[in-house]
Protein backbone atom coordinates (compact mmCIF):
# COMPACT_ATOMS: atom_id res chain seq x y z
CA UNK A 1 0.00 0.00 0.00
CA UNK A 2 1.23 3.50 -0.89
CA UNK A 3 0.14 6.80 0.54
CA UNK A 4 0.55 10.44 -0.36
CA UNK A 5 -0.37 13.67 1.39
CA UNK A 6 -1.15 16.52 -0.97
CA UNK A 7 0.18 18.96 1.64
CA UNK A 8 3.69 17.76 0.82
CA UNK A 9 3.34 19.48 -2.55
CA UNK A 10 0.56 22.02 -1.97
CA UNK A 11 1.10 23.69 1.43
CA UNK A 12 -2.09 23.76 3.47
CA UNK A 13 -3.93 21.05 1.55
CA UNK A 14 -5.07 18.27 3.89
CA UNK A 15 -6.09 15.71 1.27
CA UNK A 16 -4.47 12.28 1.58
CA UNK A 17 -4.57 9.32 -0.79
CA UNK A 18 -3.96 5.60 -0.53
CA UNK A 19 -3.64 3.07 -3.32
CA UNK A 20 -2.05 -0.28 -4.06
CA UNK A 21 0.57 1.29 -6.29
CA UNK A 22 2.02 4.56 -7.51
CA UNK A 23 -0.26 4.60 -10.56
CA UNK A 24 -3.32 4.46 -8.33
CA UNK A 25 -2.06 7.41 -6.31
CA UNK A 26 -1.31 9.47 -9.41
CA UNK A 27 -4.80 8.77 -10.81
CA UNK A 28 -6.43 10.04 -7.62
CA UNK A 29 -4.10 13.03 -7.41
CA UNK A 30 -4.88 14.01 -11.00
CA UNK A 31 -8.62 14.06 -10.22
CA UNK A 32 -8.04 15.95 -6.97
CA UNK A 33 -5.77 18.50 -8.67
CA UNK A 34 -8.44 19.16 -11.28
CA UNK A 35 -11.38 19.38 -8.91
CA UNK A 36 -9.79 21.08 -5.91
CA UNK A 37 -6.82 22.95 -7.32
CA UNK A 38 -8.19 23.94 -10.73
CA UNK A 39 -5.36 22.19 -12.60
CA UNK A 40 -6.62 20.83 -15.91
CA UNK A 41 -3.45 18.82 -16.29
CA UNK A 42 -0.74 17.92 -13.81
CA UNK A 43 2.63 19.20 -15.07
CA UNK A 44 5.53 16.73 -15.20
CA UNK A 45 7.36 18.60 -12.46
CA UNK A 46 4.38 18.23 -10.13
CA UNK A 47 4.12 14.53 -10.98
CA UNK A 48 7.81 14.23 -10.06
CA UNK A 49 7.16 15.97 -6.73
CA UNK A 50 4.21 13.70 -6.03
CA UNK A 51 6.27 10.58 -6.80
CA UNK A 52 9.07 11.83 -4.54
CA UNK A 53 6.60 12.19 -1.66
CA UNK A 54 4.75 8.88 -2.00
CA UNK A 55 5.48 6.69 1.00
CA UNK A 56 4.74 3.14 2.07
CA UNK A 57 1.55 2.75 4.10
CA UNK A 58 1.24 -0.04 6.64
ZN1 LIG B 1 -4.59 19.09 -2.67
How is this structure best described in words?
- The structure is a single chain.
- This protein has a domain of 37 residues.
- It has a three-stranded antiparallel β-sheet with strand order 2-1-3, with helices on one face.
- 12% of the residues are buried.
- The protein has 58 residues and is of the alpha+beta class.
- Helix content is 45%, strand content 17%.
- It is globular, with a radius of gyration of 10 Å.
- It contains two helices and three strands.
- The termini are close together.
- Bound molecules: zinc ion.
- Zinc ion binds next to helix 1.
Write the layout of secondary structure elements.
Layout: E1 2-5, E2 16-19, H1 22-37, H2 44-53, E3 55-56
Bound molecules: zinc ion.
Pfam families: DUF1059 (PF06348)
Protein name: DUF1059 domain-containing protein
InterPro entries: DUF1059
Report the portion of residues in β strands: 15-25%
Main sheet?
3 strands, antiparallel
Mean pLDDT: 96
Q: How do the strands line up in the largest sheet?
A: 2-1-3
- The global form is globular
Q: Low-confidence segments, ≥5 residues, pLDDT <50?
A: none
Could you state the order of secondary-structure elements as H and E?
EEHHE
Number of helices: 2
Q: Whole-Å distance between the termini? A: 7 Å
Count the beta strands.
Answer: 3
What hetero molecules are bound to the protein chains?
zinc ion
Fraction of helical residues = 40-55%
Q: Could you tell me the radius of gyration in angstroms?
A: 10 Å
Structural class: alpha+beta
Amino acid sequence: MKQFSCGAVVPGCTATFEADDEHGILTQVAAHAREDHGMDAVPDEVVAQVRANISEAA
